[in-house]
Predict the 3D structure of the following.
Amino acid sequence: MTKWYKKYIASVPILLNLALLIAVISLFVMESFLLDIPEVFSGAEALGKVYYKLCISMMASYLFYFIVIHLKTVKDKENINTFVGSKVKAIIDNYKAQIKGLVSTVESFSGKDELSPLEIQRTFSRTNEISHAPLYLSNLGEATWLQFFKYYKKETEDDIKKLYIKIQFLDSELIALLAEIDNSQYYKIIDVLASIHPHSCDVSTLSSFFYNHSILCKQLEEYYDKNLSAYTIV
């Protein structure tokens, strides 16, 4: 019942719900207590009849809005949020896959999905001693670390592009988070390194930029948990 109320009733604009509540209470009071009492002032009965009809009209309008407009809006939101939630989760999973790849280079960090700035610096330094990242590319074989980060950059950018197509359905907070990730210095530095040293395994210069990127991804995950997790099909 609580879930139904939250989904269908609480999502109606508060002013409409308030107007309905006033109309229902007014009708109850008029039907129960005011019909048999004398007029308090001249014209009160006529005014009461007008208000009575106004309340009935309000209830009818609310019912029409709820059935014809609101239920469809809720269903449309549910459908679009299923799509949005899946793409946002994919972006978060791309970030976590990079963390998982990094922590695999240092055994003591294994299993963590979040690293401190110092841990990130240490893991990026460790990648310099390892020629291959934990990723196999069908056309290139085992990926270098730069190819590893570039791969997840492209995956994330593709998911963001798909979300931008539905931008009219996204709220401003989500759009801002996606824009910050899409335009992050981390992605720009990856492109610079790829153009200068496309096969390099030295990615230590990325560490500070990756930490800033991780903050944005954690903010996106918090948004997802609060607004979209209920719509995601696992």
Observations:
- The chain has a mean pLDDT of 85.
